[in-house]
Amino acid sequence: MFGFFRKKPPPSPPAAPGDAGVPAPLAGRDGHIGAIEAITLDGTMHFFGFDFRSDLVLSPLIEDPALMARFASRHMAQRDGTHDKAYWRALVGFAQEGSELCSDEDSRRFDSRELATALDRLDRVRREGSTEPGFTIQYHLRYLLGAAGGWEVPEEAGSEDADLWIAQVAGEEPLADSMRLQEVASRLQAHLNALVDAAPGNWGTLFAVLRR
């Protein structure tokens, strides 16, 4: 279950001289100790910085390995301090091969068409109230959107376990007394909307397919 909390993020710092083309960190998350992670969306690998101690995504999604290294050399650190682009470029290479955050490679791969199909199925549940066997929205994607957004979700979107809602939509878990499946599906959609709305930068735009 996501531990959502609400706080106002600080503004992103202005770019320093020589930073032309380097994106700003998300929500002012500058100087965090972090690592390089990667996901694949529609066949394209995207890199990002991640702070394991705070469970926060630090950067936009960045396709260019060299640009990711430049971002990290400017805006990130390791436990022993800051490092140059060559150091971070090596860590980008490691991220291309594996992940410390999610060891399952399939869980780090996303397809916009498959996500759109899943949302169409969720729409049917909201209209008709019948289960959709096999329905899922990957946990790792929901986790990353939450981490990008700083775990900010409005109270009306709920703070219950989205994994349970997904299992109920798929017919894998029973409904609570007096709960209708349409209501569960609507709560799940509101939750997904809130995740996308809270995700800054291109996280929200690249995964806008989750919003209805």
From TrEMBL:
Superkingdom: Bacteria
Spans annotated as Disordered: 1-24
Annotated protein name in UniProt: Uncharacterized protein
